[in-house]
Amino acid sequence: MRLTNKLLTGAVMAGAIMAMAASARANTIFGSIWENDSTGAMDATPANVPTTTPDVTFTAPDPLNFSSGSLYTIGEFLASGNGSTVLTGAGELGNTLDNTIFYFTGTVSVTNGETFTAGHDDGLTLVIGGVTVLDAAGPTSFDVTTDTYTGPTGNEPFQLVYGECCGAPADLSISLPFVSPTVPEPASLALLGSALFGFGAIRRRRNRT
């Protein structure tokens, strides 16, 4: 009986922790970078995102706000993003931004008819829930692209592809309406609290016996 109670409590606690972790990840942007990819850098579309392992992976906060400095390196570009965290590929950060393709993914809460604006040098493509919202994939000097989301209202996955070619500078700025909250949902907190309470009761009962 004791073993069953412990297993049940453990399962409930694990489920609550997993739910909290999923909630915490809800508004995280995940990014990947491939180097020496002139095709993707010149034509930043989802079709040109490589299927190979990326050279660098990272997380980034909203809004995305990156710009290159005098070094024109991957590391300098990511460091300008005010909170970006490199996950893999730290040894690549000193390499040039030229001919790189970036792929950002996450989930946003969107409304039909919502307007999106991005500043970019070079090209980018924004897709939300399978609907292409911003389509400016080719090389350009700094430009501002604005368009309207025509898909359904709700929480939808997004893909943002950004290509950097043809030399400095590199710029990318866009704000996306992330799913919130970043804190655990009330149901998750209640589930964890119940599990902890049950665990405490089991411990007290065992101590009495």
Walkthrough of the structure:
This protein is an alpha+beta fold. The chain folds into two domains: 51 residues; 154 residues, Jelly Rolls (Sandwich). The chain is built from four helices and eleven strands, in the order αβαββαββββββββα. The strands form two sheets. The protein has a seven-stranded antiparallel β-sheet with strand order 4-2-1-5-10-7-8. A four-stranded antiparallel β-sheet has the order 3-11-6-9. A hairpin with a 2-residue loop joins strand 7 and strand 8. Helix 1 packs antiparallel against helix 4. The protein is globular and about 40 Å long.
Task: Provide a quick synopsis of the model.
The chain has helices at 2-24, 38-42, 74-79, 186-208, and strands at residues 29-34, 56-60, 64-67, 85-88, 100-110, 115-121, 124-128, 131-136, 143-148, 154-164, 171-174.
